[in-house]
Amino acid sequence: MVIKMLTIKCARCKTKIMKYKKIGQGKVINCYKDRITRLYDYETKDDLLQCGNCQNTIGEIKEKSVSMKQEAFTYSGHKIRK
Ligand SMILES: [Zn+2]
Hints:
Helices cover about 0% and strands about 60% of the residues. A hairpin with a 5-residue loop joins strand 1 and strand 2. The protein has one domain (about 5-80). The chain is globular and about 35 Å long. A 5-stranded antiparallel sheet has the order 3-8-7-6-5, with no helix packed on it. By secondary structure, the protein is mostly beta strands. It binds zinc ion (ZN).
């Protein structure tokens, strides 16, 4: 099982949004709330998660996860365990 620590940034202004512990391969489609280890600069509006700097909508907040808007964010990260 690959575990990565990702830093998720706004695609528009590069502001850091959050740190996310991703388990497994593949794209970041949903961010489970219990694996978000740190929140940086963000805002919420209704059920939307937005960039705290430019209000770009990053994802939609669900009960247990954030459904990520694919073109709205970028990420970088490193493996913490293989
Ligand atoms: Zn932004």
